[in-house]
Amino acid sequence: RRQRSLALRRGGCQALYAEGDVVVFVRVYQHQRALVAINRGEACEVALEALPLLNVAGWQCKTGSGDIREGRLRLPAISATVWMNR
Protein backbone atom coordinates (compact mmCIF):
# COMPACT_ATOMS: atom_id res chain seq x y z
CA ARG A 1 0.00 0.00 0.00
CA ARG A 2 2.80 2.39 0.79
CA GLN A 3 4.07 2.20 -2.79
CA ARG A 4 0.68 3.44 -4.06
CA SER A 5 0.36 6.34 -1.62
CA LEU A 6 2.27 9.55 -2.26
CA ALA A 7 1.31 10.75 1.21
CA LEU A 8 2.98 7.72 2.81
CA ARG A 9 6.01 7.81 0.52
CA ARG A 10 6.74 11.52 0.25
CA GLY A 11 4.40 13.39 2.56
CA GLY A 12 5.35 15.64 5.41
CA CYS A 13 4.74 14.12 8.83
CA GLN A 14 3.01 15.70 11.82
CA ALA A 15 2.63 13.92 15.16
CA LEU A 16 -0.90 14.28 16.54
CA TYR A 17 -0.69 12.13 19.66
CA ALA A 18 2.11 10.34 21.48
CA GLU A 19 1.44 8.99 24.94
CA GLY A 20 2.26 5.68 26.57
CA ASP A 21 2.09 2.93 23.97
CA VAL A 22 0.16 4.95 21.35
CA VAL A 23 1.47 7.13 18.52
CA VAL A 24 -0.78 8.83 15.96
CA PHE A 25 0.51 10.89 13.06
CA VAL A 26 -0.68 12.27 9.74
CA ARG A 27 1.29 12.43 6.50
CA VAL A 28 0.27 14.93 3.82
CA TYR A 29 1.27 15.23 0.18
CA GLN A 30 -0.68 17.75 -1.89
CA HIS A 31 -4.35 16.76 -1.38
CA GLN A 32 -3.62 13.24 -0.18
CA ARG A 33 -3.61 12.47 3.54
CA ALA A 34 -2.76 9.36 5.52
CA LEU A 35 -3.61 8.98 9.19
CA VAL A 36 -1.54 6.34 10.97
CA ALA A 37 -2.15 4.97 14.48
CA ILE A 38 0.17 2.52 16.22
CA ASN A 39 -0.76 0.92 19.53
CA ARG A 40 1.79 -1.27 21.34
CA GLY A 41 -0.45 -1.81 24.38
CA GLU A 42 -4.01 -2.59 25.45
CA ALA A 43 -7.08 -1.62 23.42
CA CYS A 44 -7.82 2.07 23.92
CA GLU A 45 -9.62 5.17 22.68
CA VAL A 46 -7.80 8.37 21.69
CA ALA A 47 -9.41 11.79 21.25
CA LEU A 48 -7.77 13.92 18.56
CA GLU A 49 -7.78 17.69 18.54
CA ALA A 50 -9.92 19.22 15.82
CA LEU A 51 -7.30 20.32 13.29
CA PRO A 52 -7.77 21.62 9.73
CA LEU A 53 -5.37 18.85 8.69
CA LEU A 54 -7.95 16.25 9.75
CA ASN A 55 -10.91 18.05 8.20
CA VAL A 56 -11.55 15.83 5.19
CA ALA A 57 -14.74 14.52 3.62
CA GLY A 58 -14.09 11.10 5.08
CA TRP A 59 -11.46 8.62 6.07
CA GLN A 60 -11.27 5.14 4.60
CA CYS A 61 -9.49 2.39 6.53
CA LYS A 62 -6.83 0.86 4.28
CA THR A 63 -5.20 -1.54 6.70
CA GLY A 64 -5.75 -2.59 10.29
CA SER A 65 -8.94 -2.72 12.31
CA GLY A 66 -9.07 0.57 14.19
CA ASP A 67 -12.13 2.79 13.97
CA ILE A 68 -12.42 6.57 13.64
CA ARG A 69 -15.57 8.57 14.42
CA GLU A 70 -16.00 12.23 15.26
CA GLY A 71 -12.34 12.76 16.07
CA ARG A 72 -12.04 9.68 18.29
CA LEU A 73 -9.90 6.68 17.42
CA ARG A 74 -10.71 3.26 18.82
CA LEU A 75 -7.60 1.12 18.60
CA PRO A 76 -7.33 -2.62 19.21
CA ALA A 77 -4.49 -3.93 21.36
CA ILE A 78 -1.12 -4.41 19.65
CA SER A 79 -2.20 -2.90 16.34
CA ALA A 80 -1.43 -0.52 13.51
CA THR A 81 -4.12 1.12 11.39
CA VAL A 82 -3.84 3.37 8.33
CA TRP A 83 -6.67 5.56 7.03
CA MET A 84 -6.58 7.53 3.78
CA ASN A 85 -8.77 10.46 2.83
CA ARG A 86 -11.35 9.67 0.15
UniProtKB/TrEMBL annotation:
Residue spans crossing the bilayer: none
Superkingdom of this protein's organism: Bacteria
Alphabetical list of Pfam families matching this protein: Alpha-amylase_C_2
InterPro entries, sorted: Alpha-amylase-like_C (IPR054174), Glyco_hydro_b (IPR013780)
Domain Alpha-amylase-like C-terminal: 11-43
Name of the protein: Maltodextrin glucosidase
